[in-house]
Amino acid sequence: MAAVAPIAILLGAIGAVALLFNSFSNPFQAHFGKFGERFATDLEAAGMTMEPQNFAFVLVGVALVPWLALLVLLRPAPLAGVLMLAASALFAYFGGRAFLKQRRVKRIALFTDQLEGALRTLAGGVRVGLGIRQALTITSEQSREPAKSEFMRVVGLSNLGLSILDAFDQLALRMTNTETAVLARVVRVQSQTGGDLGTVLEGLAGTIRDRRRLRRRVRAVTAQGRATAWLLGLLPLGVGAFVLTQDELRDAMLQTLPGHIFLAVALLLDAVAVFVLVRMTRIDP
């Protein structure tokens, strides 16, 4: 532990300086502006109001807290401590990305489930003679989240001067699914060629209903494969907990080079197996 303490202090000081520099240096912020914009876009798509800087602080905490806990509990060699810090940082970063992606996927799935009813309401408003903006306002008022806020945003953008067609295109960019992309194209084509928009929206709502049924069948068929992927992903945690209870095995795994190699190979093979299973069960009807 004494050998690792200087490394921990040095890395902590470097991290603190980097965070302060990031907070007060405009050139630094400009250099990493695209990185922050990407995080801001992901946070917005996930329906979170947190600022990118605050989310970055959370990721730093997620990386440091378990690393410091492992230093206290395991007392690894200096090289192992550095490798554990790198692994903890990678876990925090990719875990944060996965968390945002999962939130975004759930939000898009919920929006897709609400889209059928929203389109029927929108079609009804168009058929009684309302303009698409007025019909969309009524639809947003009668919808639940996230459809409510997304349609209200379309109306708000159109009120600020953006064309309703471009507002629907931005909706398709936020809700990255086939149904919303088709909706944006339908509205644009109908505005240019004319025709009965209400009938087209009703037909699109029926297509979305059929796709939802097919998607439920696909999830039922692939349930076993997804459960296997979850078990394989959690297996290293169970094995790691067992190893921590065995002093000799723990020291051999964490404080020797062959143990490090064995751990790396085992984790790599497990990650490959989970990746293959996830790819096999990922079917987009």
- Quick one: biggest sheet? none
Along the chain, the helix and strand elements come as HHHHHHHHHHHHH
* Mean residue pLDDT: 78
Count of individual helical segments:
13
Number of beta strands: 0
Structural category is mainly alpha
Percent helix range? over 70%
Low-confidence stretches: 23-31
CA distance, first residue to last residue? 54 Å
Percent of residues in beta strands:
under 5%
Radius of gyration: 25 Å
Task: List its salient traits.
285 residues, mainly alpha, 13 helices
Draw up the topology in text.
Elements: H1 5-24, H2 26-31, H3 33-45, H4 52-74, H5 78-127, H6 132-142, H7 147-159, H8 164-174, H9 178-193, H10 197-221, H11 223-244, H12 247-254, H13 257-281
Q: What report would you give on this structure?
A:
By secondary structure, the chain is an all-alpha fold. The protein is 85% helix and 0% strand. The chain has 13 helices and no strands. Helix 5 packs across helix 6 and helix 8 runs antiparallel to helix 9. It is elongated and about 80 Å long. The termini are far apart. About 3% of the residues have low confidence.
Condensed summary:
The chain is built from 13 helices and no strands.
